[in-house]
Design a protein that fits this description.
Length: about 110
């Protein structure tokens, strides 16, 4: 779905209720608590250039194992992966998945 806003009263985007438009059922692959993204009264905004903004608003908790062998000179990396709850990876591709990290709080440990 794309459109030229100039042809439609300069409307740059359209908002949908989450229940009225298809969206992926994202699940954190390694959760401490099982949570599916989305929920009651969430909105999905579709822009004229077909960029879609969906802000589910959940808080996900995950953990990683760390190797402290070279502490304090080590570097640890924790990968966070999401999967789709309804489709296998070969049936669905998610592009440009971005997360707002403005509320991210790093753990000092």
């Amino acid at each position: 779905m794309t459109w030229d806003p100039a042809n439609y009263s300069n409307i740059p985007n359209v908002n949908f209720k989450e229940k009225d438009i298809w969206h992926p059922s994202l699940v954190l692959e390694t959760p401490l608590k099982f949570t599916v993204a989305g929920g009651y009264r969430q909105r999905i905004q579709v822009n004229a250039n077909f960029n879609v903004e969906w802000v589910p608003g959940e808080v996900w908790e995950s953990s990683c194992r760390f190797n402290m062998k070279f502490w304090p000179f080590d570097k640890q990396t924790c990968n966070i992966e999401f999967i789709h709850a309804d489709f296998k990876a070969d049936k669905l591709q998610t592009h440009h998945l971005m997360f707002d990290k403005s509320n991210y709080i790093p753990n000092s440990e």
